[in-house]
Amino acid sequence: MSYSTVKDVLDYSRKLHEHTRNLYQQLRDQTQRERVDMMLTLLAAHENTLADAMASMQEHTSQKVLQEWHQFEPGSISEALQDARELHPDISLDELVKVALRIDDYLISLYRQILSETTSDDARAVFESLIRLEETEKMRTVRAALSANDW
């Protein structure tokens, strides 16, 4: 396992969210299902919010924390999004939500792993904040999926 800085982790997360947003937007152009299209719009906005949050966090985190090294080897974005291979124009709403939640769970797990090995209080605060943000956004996705039948 190699090491990366907190800044590297935030960059990786931002790029992952941006790439996921782009996948959802591309799929919107291909799908004919109204509810799926609406969920894709919501999911693209969800990913955009998270990408913006990563950029903002990077701006508002001290250089000392951003330059801290942690055991983390960022894989390729395509490896992290391996479940996105299941995305296709005829995807069901349930399948789409499962893919989206697995991406959220991947990042939550990543942040928890780094948090468990972090000794700096400031870095701990950053990763705790990232976990709360991802969990909050994940719950918004679940609520939207549950209310999709009302659309």
Query: How does the helix and strand content classify structurally?
Result: mainly alpha
Biggest sheet layout: 2 strands, antiparallel
Say how many strands there are. Answer: 2
Q: What is the average per-residue confidence, as pLDDT, rounded to a whole number?
A: 91
CATH topology type: Ferritin
The residue fraction in helices comes out at over 70%
Q: What is the second-level CATH architecture? A: Up-down Bundle
Percent of residues in β-strands: under 5%
- Number of helical segments? 6
Shape: elongated
InterPro entries: Ferritin-like, Ferritin-like_SF
Structural descriptors:
151 residues; mainly alpha; Ferritin; 2 strands
Could you outline the blueprint of secondary structure elements for this entry?
Elements: E1 3-5, H1 6-30, H2 34-60, H3 63-66, E2 69-71, H4 77-80, H5 93-117, H6 121-147
Antiparallel strand pairs: 1-2
Helix pairs in contact: 1-2, 2-5, 2-6, 5-6
Describe this structure in words.
With 151 residues, this protein is mainly alpha-helical. The chain has a single domain, classed as Ferritin (Up-down Bundle), CATH 1.20.1260. It is 74% helix and 4% strand. The chain has 6 helices and 2 strands. It has helices at residues 6-30, 34-60, 63-66, 77-80, 93-117, 121-147; strands at residues 3-5, 69-71. Strands 1-2 form a two-stranded antiparallel ribbon. The longest helix has 27 residues, at 34-60. The chain is elongated. The N and C termini lie far apart (46 Å).
Question: Can I get a quick summary?
Answer:
InterPro entries: Ferritin-like, Ferritin-like_SF. The chain is 74% helix and 4% strand.
